[in-house]
Amino acid sequence: MDTTFTARISQFLTLLQTELFPLLREEMELELSPALEKVIRVLELVQVERFIPSSRGWVGAPPKDRLALARAFVAKAVLNLPTTEGLIDRLKVDQSLRRVCGFDSRRKIPGAWRFSRAFAEFAAGQLPARVHEALIGAHLGTS
pTM above 0.85? Predict the structure, then answer.
């Protein structure tokens, strides 16, 4: 077993528990359920936002929208939500999840069509594969 990898994961989890979660609870006033803590752990580990290209100057949805959509898709997978409609419903009622994903308010939750369009863009750009490859390279090396 790679002790460097194990030590890094342990340090990462300790940092989340001692610094990030208290900050989110106290200063941002988020209610953190065990499920939401799991979403935050995964989002912090994969850092999907590093793989969303900047679309400054492009026509279409602003980059912030794409970042929130990408984070929401990660949350959908972690929470084991079977449909995009289920994800949208959850975002509408769960203020903490909404804020963790990056949506400002309940009224700003995109419709299913925007999620579908973003999912198609992420798939065409091979976002999941690129994130996975980067995680493997960063934590297990490039043998």
Answer: no
